[in-house]
């Protein structure tokens, strides 16, 4: 090791420079990705019967690697292959993080999978669209009726302009199986012990916090050492203080809304106050979302602001002692709004040779029958599952109702980290500093606005 | 940089001269023997390194056609304050990964060396070496639980009446980095101790006898016999631990993800972050190359300690 370092010093240096020059002169990296079929096919040219596709294999990359999502995927794949014995599904299942790091390479290779689950937003779906790696599904949407079945706010999450620059409009690039929202979990016994009931307005929710604290209990269980929970708690409050129209403008970079506007400022101040007054646990920055969730399940904390993805975990740990409600509106009876989205989009790659069969597969795993399977295996389908009714009084029933309220009445606001390609970092880091008392709400928002305006300039 | 240049010049010159006096043909055959090693090194290390350097000269999202920016990514990296602080964090981590473990291990070696007979040494070696063997994700997860707000450390501090200094260690802006560093100390100290114990056993017993006859006490004996005798082991330990400190990724990824705020970001984490989260593959490669250069320079400097090198 040592010898090699020293002796090779000068000579390797010369070789390295020569070799580097040679390769640099050759060609620039990338550019081999596109070249697939990114044009839209006429609806009449689409074959909706996979039985006629001949003997083929569909390679499908999904992220449903655990729990109920895995069970549902296995069952749906089995049913699809039974119905169409000529098609073999080659399933590649990875965790979310693994998929994120490997999908890019797989898509830009010469032999990409036929169907992939792509994450919404600029760094993933936007980048894939820009590179011409995904096929637009507009015609399939017409043929299979996705454009009618799905509320437009859900479809829009999977849309991009053909150049990958503008999100939530343009071509449809995927269909989602499931939905998710961030809401408020509550410990039923503790809420009763505090002499309170489920708040009807956001003001009532806020005034409950000191009352709970006065009884010696923790008002909101929270931990954000893994960063993303800070987005969720801020998003929920901002949805109430700023309202849906402006938040949507901010996240999709349209209109003149600013991250330093009054409503958003109020949201930041609210959370900063919660932290200062001890409505959030003192060491929130040193506690992960998982740990906070486990603490909540153990009876520490009356409320917990978190996503519906905790359904199975909390129901198992707390049984019927846990409930869920949408963040209450500013005035009683108003339509509720909250942060949320749809599961990763099932998309067809532009280089697949079996686009029709791939789209038929996506339809098969998202249709009404598939939604029943999803609901029965503990998932929250994006659209209603006609053959499934959750048991009354359970967390499951609360969450199904809450999702219907939000998704059917235009109450969904996109996750804030979709705002710019670097926004995840910016918002989580600044929220951690604000919650830790290192940065004022105004200072944190100024940093968010700087990131936002820099991105807007590049558009 | 200038220091580095003069040192390499000094040591390589005499070596090349002595080689020239030998026959040229045997030199060529010698190169033939080196060829297999060089092919392996070239295919698996040199080529990826150069490829990385090549990519670092482009602005590239990993998918679409890249644009040539020359050394633009490097200029950006130097002007990027948060990247600069990630290198500063690395420097602090070296203290915990290298300096503290080596000092502690030297002290322990000196004390253990006084024992006339060490029984079951091989068993203790295994125990000491264990932190090196355990997967780093397991180490990080375990320590995260220890450092948690309601974790073992805080409840222990509370029990002994130090409740006032308890804090969420990994969520504290001042203490997160030292807390991560101490995990490194725990991991590396066993390695250092095992190396030094092996080194001490190679120091001729006569030297100790002579020192004792000359009336040296424990301290004098340590500085005059043990420490000089361990120079090459110290060089090896320093190289391994400093490099481990500079390229820390897993501990940060699992324990803090660079947080709170940006108080525990390190270059290796930034490489991952730029490549996979921000889709800036060119910048990621530039940071990787810079990190490689820093490690190279530091390694060469550390090797100056090794007595075999200055001869």
Kindly describe this structure.
- The complex is a heterodimer of chains A (459) and B (311).
- Chain A has helices spanning 2-26, 67-83, 96-108, 122-130, 138-144, 146-149, 152-156, 188-193, 202-214, 228-242, 244-251, 262-276, 289-297, 311-318, 355-364, 368-376, 395-408, 423-435, 441-458, and strands spanning 56-62, 87-93, 115-118, 159-160, 171-172, 179-187, 303-307, 322-325, 338-342, 345-348, 412-413.
- Chain A is of the alpha/beta class and 459 residues long.
- Chain A is globular and about 70 Å long.
- Chain A starts with a helix and ends with a helix.
- In chain A, strands 6, 7, 8, 9 and 11 form a five-stranded mixed beta sheet that branches. Chain A has a four-stranded mixed beta sheet with strand order 2-1-3-10.
- Chain B is mainly alpha-helical.
- Chain B contains 15 helices and two strands.
- Chain B has helices spanning 2-21, 24-55, 72-79, 81-114, 121-133, 136-147, 152-159, 176-202, 205-213, 218-229, 231-246, 250-255, 267-277, 281-303, 307-310, and strands spanning 58-59, 67-68.
- A two-stranded antiparallel ribbon of chain B has the order 1-2.
- Chain B is flat, with a radius of gyration of 24 Å.
- Mean pLDDT of chain B is 86; it is low at 1-21.
- Classes of the chains: A alpha/beta (459), B mainly alpha (311).
- At the A-B interface, helix 1, helix 3, helix 4 and helix 18 of A face helix 1, helix 2, strand 2, helix 13 and helix 14 of B.
Write the layout of secondary structure elements.
The complex is a heterodimer of chains A (459) and B (311).
Chain A: H1 2-26, E1 56-62, H2 67-83, E2 87-93, H3 96-108, E3 115-118, H4 122-130, H5 138-144, H6 146-149, H7 152-156, E4 159-160, E5 171-172, E6 179-187, H8 188-193, H9 202-214, H10 228-242, H11 244-251, H12 262-276, H13 289-297, E7 303-307, H14 311-318, E8 322-325, E9 338-342, E10 345-348, H15 355-364, H16 368-376, H17 395-408, E11 412-413, H18 423-435, H19 441-458
Helix pairs in contact in A: 2-16, 10-11, 10-12, 10-18, 12-19, 18-19
Chain B: H1 2-21, H2 24-55, E1 58-59, E2 67-68, H3 72-79, H4 81-114, H5 121-133, H6 136-147, H7 152-159, H8 176-202, H9 205-213, H10 218-229, H11 231-246, H12 250-255, H13 267-277, H14 281-303, H15 307-310
Antiparallel strand pairs in B: 1-2
């Amino acid at each position: 090791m040592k010898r090699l370092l020293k002796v090779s010093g000068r000579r390797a240096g010369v070789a390295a420079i020569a070799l580097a020059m040679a390769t640099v002169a050759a060609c620039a990296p990338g550019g081999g990705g596109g070249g697939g079929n990114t044009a839209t096919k006429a609806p009449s040219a689409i074959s909706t019967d996979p039985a006629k596709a001949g003997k083929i294999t569909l390679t499908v990359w999904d992220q449903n690697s655990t729990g109920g999502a895995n069970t549902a995927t296995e069952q749906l794949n089995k049913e699809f292959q039974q119905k169409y014995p000529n098609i073999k599904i080659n399933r590649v299942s990875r965790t979310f993080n693994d998929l994120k790091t490997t999908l890019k390479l797989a898509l830009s290779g010469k032999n990409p999978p036929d169907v992939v689950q792509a994450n919404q937003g600029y760094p993933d779906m936007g980048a894939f669209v820009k590179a011409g790696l995904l096929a637009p599904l507009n015609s399939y949407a017409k043929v299979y009726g996705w454009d009618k079945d799905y509320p437009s706010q859900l479809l829009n999450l999977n849309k991009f302009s053909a150049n990958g620059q503008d999100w939530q409009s343009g071509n449809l690039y995927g269909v989602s199986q499931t939905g998710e929202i961030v809401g408020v979990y509550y410990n039923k016994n503790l809420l009763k012990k505090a002499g309170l009931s489920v708040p009807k307005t956001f003001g009532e929710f806020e005034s409950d916090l000191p009352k709970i604290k006065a009884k010696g209990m923790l008002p909101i269980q929270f931990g954000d050492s893994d960063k993303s929970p800070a987005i969720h708690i801020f998003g929920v409050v901002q949805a109430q203080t700023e309202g849906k129209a402006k938040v949507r403008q901010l996240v999709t970079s349209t209109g003149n809304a600013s991250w330093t506007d009054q409503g958003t400022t109020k949201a930041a101040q609210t959370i900063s106050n919660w932290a200062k007054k001890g409505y959030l646990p003192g060491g929130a920055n040193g506690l992960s979302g998982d740990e906070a969730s486990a603490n909540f399940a153990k009876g520490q904390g009356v409320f917990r602001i978190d996503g519906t993805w905790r359904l199975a975990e909390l129901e198992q740990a707390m049984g019927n002692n846990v409930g869920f409600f949408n963040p209450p509106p500013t005035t009683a009876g108003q339509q509720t709004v909250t942060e949320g989205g749809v599961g990763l989009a099932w998309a067809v790659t532009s280089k697949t040779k079996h686009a029709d069969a791939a789209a038929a597969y996506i339809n098969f795993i998202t249709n009404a029958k598939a939604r029943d399977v999803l609901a029965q295996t503990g998932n929250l389908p994006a659209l209603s599952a006609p053959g499934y009714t959750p048991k009354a009084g359970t967390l499951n029933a609360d969450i199904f109702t809450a999702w219907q309220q939000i998704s059917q009445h235009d109450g969904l606001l996109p996750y804030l980290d979709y705002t710019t390609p670097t926004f995840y970092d910016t918002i989580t880091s600044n929220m951690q500093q604000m919650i830790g008392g290192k940065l004022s709400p105004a200072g944190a928002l100024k940093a968010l606005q700087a990131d936002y305006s820099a991105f807007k300039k590049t558009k | 940089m200038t220091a580095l240049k003069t040192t390499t010049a000094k040591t390589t010159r005499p070596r090349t001269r002595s080689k020239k006096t030998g026959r040229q043909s045997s030199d060529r055959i010698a190169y033939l023997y080196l060829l297999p090693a060089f092919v392996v090194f070239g295919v698996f290390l040199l080529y990826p390194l150069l490829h990385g350097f090549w990519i670092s000269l482009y602005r590239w999202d990993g998918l679409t056609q890249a644009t040539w920016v020359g050394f633009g990514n490097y200029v950006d990296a130097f002007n990027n304050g948060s990247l600069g602080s990630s290198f500063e964090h690395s420097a602090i981590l070296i203290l915990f990964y290298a300096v503290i473990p080596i000092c502690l291990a030297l002290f322990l070696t000196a004390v253990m060396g006084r024992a006339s007979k060490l029984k079951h040494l091989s068993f203790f070696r295994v125990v000491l070496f264990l932190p090196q063997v355990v997967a780093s994700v397991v180490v990080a997860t375990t320590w995260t639980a220890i450092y948690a707000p309601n974790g073992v450390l805080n409840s222990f501090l509370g029990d002994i009446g130090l409740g006032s200094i308890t804090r969420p260690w990994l969520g504290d802006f001042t203490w997160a980095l030292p807390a991560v560093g101490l995990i490194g100390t725990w991991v590396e100290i066993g390695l250092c101790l095992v190396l030094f114990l092996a080194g001490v056993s190679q120091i001729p017993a006569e030297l100790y006898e002579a020192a004792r006859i000359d009336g040296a006490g424990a301290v004098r004996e340590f500085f005059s016999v043990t420490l000089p005798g361990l120079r090459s082991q110290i060089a090896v330990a320093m190289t391994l631990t400093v490099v481990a400190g500079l390229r820390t990724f897993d501990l940060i990824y699992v324990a803090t993800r660079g947080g709170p705020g940006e108080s525990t970001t390190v270059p290796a984490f930034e490489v991952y972050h730029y490549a996979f989260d921000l889709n800036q593959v060119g910048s990621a490669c530039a940071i990787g190359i810079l990190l490689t250069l820093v490690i190279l320079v530091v390694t060469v400097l550390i090797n100056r300690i090794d007595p075999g090198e200055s001869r």
